[in-house]
Amino acid sequence: MKVDRFDFNLPEELIAQTPLENRSSSRLMVLNKQTGEVKHETFSKLIDYLNPGDCLVLNDTKVLPARLFGIKTDTGAKVEVLLLKQTNEDRWETLVKPAKRVKKGTEISFGDGRLKAVCTGTEDHGGRQFEFQYEGIFYEILDSLGKMPLPPYIKEQLEDQDRYQTVYARERGSAAAPTAGLHFTNEILESLKVKGVHVAFVTLHVGLGTFRPVSVDSVEDHDMHAEFYRMSEETAALLNQVKADGGRIISVGTTSTRTLETIARANRGTFVAGNGWTDIFIYPGYEFQAIDGLVTNFHLPMSTLIMLVSALAGREYILHAYETAVQEKYRFFSFGDAMLII
User: Fold this and answer.
1) Which CATH class is domain 67-145?
2) 124-178: pLDDT as tens digits
3) How far apart are CA 164 and CA 147, in angstroms?
4) Is the distance from CB of 257 to CB of 282 less than 8 angstroms?
5) First CA to last CA across the chain, in angstroms?
6) What is the helix (H) or strand (E) element at residue 68, kind and residue range?
7) CATH superfamily name and code, 3-63+161-341
8) d(CA 111, CA 164)
């Protein structure tokens, strides 16, 4: 399957640069995955499409202020480091700009020496391994020195850092936000519970896969980067009960989807508590075992994310919906509008 089959024309001005003042005032396109029918709503109307006994599954990962700006201690050259994955207590897998300046043994200083990092190795994808040195608590230092790792297509500065966090974020470890969840407010979550819709949480720490474009011609040749996930006993029991009672499981975001499908695929369609690493790649032809619907944002052309939603609703229906979204001037990507596939 050729990657360019998932291409579409996207005017640059539709890429949302800033979040809306009110999280839930974004637009919501509702796509019927059986018929391809499209409806236009506001996100606050999501509750109308969910039934008592359904379960909404959210990714409760918390974004680290993972972008650090430092200097090489030997030359004073400026270096930008993006933390991707903690591999040991003080060791991290990272992306570096400019990478060619950072070789094994290079030392980088951040915040006038409050934090230092020594490069201990390189990665196949061009990343770097660092061991960090500091006095005190690492995450407190990171909070004071680090910046939110906004995607490269967002050029504006983010005034309120919390707008790149979901209101339910609690498990820190992500290099990017699970952006479908940015539309939710505590009021919406409470109204869903009042209606009888279950709300459950899983964790997937978003890593390098979010930043890697698909650089091959054939979909099947793309390798996904592994990301850490966790499901609690409480969530596993609730999801199994919802399935048994005939309720629908609606995942919020592609990260929640990949977590649920990884677990269900490994356990013959049931949910089992545990944690691990997943590199699941979902594209058309995949048979879903966990989810019945999906809340998601509008994705990049030829990305693994548009391939995932195409697997759920069909490539033709998705591309037609995206064409409609462009015509109707929906906002795209992280701070953009939402789609419900159901």
Assistant:
1) mainly beta
2) 777 899 999 999 999 999 999 999 988 878 888 888 889 999 999 999 999 899 9
3) 11
4) yes
5) 25
6) strand 67-72
7) QueA-like (3.40.1780.10)
8) 23
